[in-house]
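Components:
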Amino acid sequence: MELLEIFTSAGIWGAVLRIATPLIFGTLGALICERAGVLNLGIEGIMTFGAMIGWLTVFNGGDLWVGLLAAAAFGALFGLLHAGMTVTLGLSQHVTGLGITLFASSLSYYIFRLAVPLASSPPTIEPFQPLVIPYLSTLPFLGDALFNQTAPTYLAILLAAILAYVLFRTPLGLAVRMTGENPHGAEAQGVNPIAVRIGAVMVGSALMAVGGAFLTLSAFNSFFPTMVQGRGWVCIALVVFASWRPGRALLGALLFALFDAYQLRLQAALGKAVPYQLFLMVPYVLSIIALIVMARRARVPQALMQPYRRGER
Amino acid sequence: MRLERRAHRPLLLVLLAPIIAIVTALVIAGVLIAIAGAPVLEAYRLILTGAFGTRLGFTETLTRATPLMLTGLAAAVAFRARVWNIGAEGQFYLSAIAVAAVAATVFSGWPPYLLIPAALMVGAIAGMIMLLVPLGLRLRFGVDEVVTSLLLNFVVVLFVSMMIEGPLKDPLAFGWPQSIPVGPDAMLPKLIDRTRLHIGLVIAMVIAVLVYFLQSRTVFGMQSRAAGLSPTAAVFSGVPLAKTLIKVACLSGGLAGLAGAIEVMGVKGYVTTDLSPGYGYSGIIVAMLANLHPIGVIAAALFTATMFVGADSMGRALGIPSYIADVTVSLSLLTMLVSIFFTQYRIRR
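Structure:
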């Protein structure tokens, strides 16, 4: 069966990790925010801004890692804006998040157009090269499948492990989870819920922006408007699918990327027999199905989307 | 220093809130224009003359405001009942392609006075269906409709792309991916000859007034408001919650669908995947700037259209990316949220 042979090529497994990387960063970022009780729908715009500012930094002579750092810094800044509005003032998290998405993406396009005048072919940068790991990268099959990635991909996987540890094994993680479950209780325990939420949203937004920057600094080598293409919304769905657990978020992103990599190859194999748009719908439809399957089962942080104001219940 | 809830909201402050928000957004956008090295006041003067200074600019602004009024109303009625309809873009496109599919085929040969209302109805129903899906998922499975309605936008645009490259492709379009035309009989009458301005503007404004009466004078209006303020309290006071939300979704989706139908029958006459420059998303901004008031939506849509049309001509004159319009308008959504907040709260030492 030709359609199943796709899975036996090393290429698809390499592609899975590549496709999953921005989703892992984005999902972990959204997960941190939501664990502290804040839904961050600014993710789509923050990823776009990260993609733009990371690319622009490198285009202007910055190092690739400086590009990632710049993305993280600006991501945190947008996080601060989101937190200022939803945590300090307690405004609607839905509307604020959408506003940040619209603002961050249009600001990205404005800055990009200003810095790079319209050209027939978009200017490019030299992206991250695959990191050669002694012995592992030269293994037959496994080398190509798993150990032929760029550094940020390994970083994303490492990050999931670190986040799982911090969230469930440290006092800081406990404070974040308490704030997301019951901010009044957290305050009684001497935790400042406002500070925890602002911090969580800033860190989470920084990760989202890094996920966006991966697109322009590793997956592709140029920036163009609408390139994030709903990946942020997919991440929001993946957080629910993962029941707000970093390990499952990693698995969810990989599973999702597997479907995506498979549909890309299926598209090539089937050619014109099936309209290509049907394949492109797969990620979005999958996200909706994931939401339906998990919605009732998932354990939502109890104070998600509830603003916390001192002395008000 | 702390925030304290006001005992009552001063009316003057509520009315001033959008103006304060827009001025703040314009000042911040002015900084961005200055960074680009252009004279700020000159830029704003050019935006105004671009949007209103000429016959062409003025009618273009009104043409652009038309779909924004309808998508703005779609968001306003939904948000009032806390149905987070972020799917207006998808509802707009599904409606547009549905109209293109039926206008010159099923309805072919109908006289315009039957054809136009029938096609508008088809568009509105397409929009309704597109919102009943995410609402149904919320009521049945408890899935947040924000994410599903957002994700469905991408699915619908791909579906439209599939249709205009497949069964609904115009064979006479020299290979360009565009739908078969709706035909001259389905085109809305022009308001002013030799411009793009069409009767859709009047339809949108009449609907805004109707929605206002629906919300302020009917049982449905009261129930939808109650559902938005507190779903549990609404249920206890006898509001049929699910039924009310479904009605709200039909109204909201229908309005967004109408926007798509009117745009395709009023302006272009056929569907492409760039029929809407984000009208669905801008509708959210319009609704918030209007503080969800249906009559306010008309004014907010005019402001948004002014920025878009004006920035186009200003951008060409001064070499500023016309994305500055998107930046200003989205910024004004954020500043509006903050200024509305301060009509409810004040800072105390």
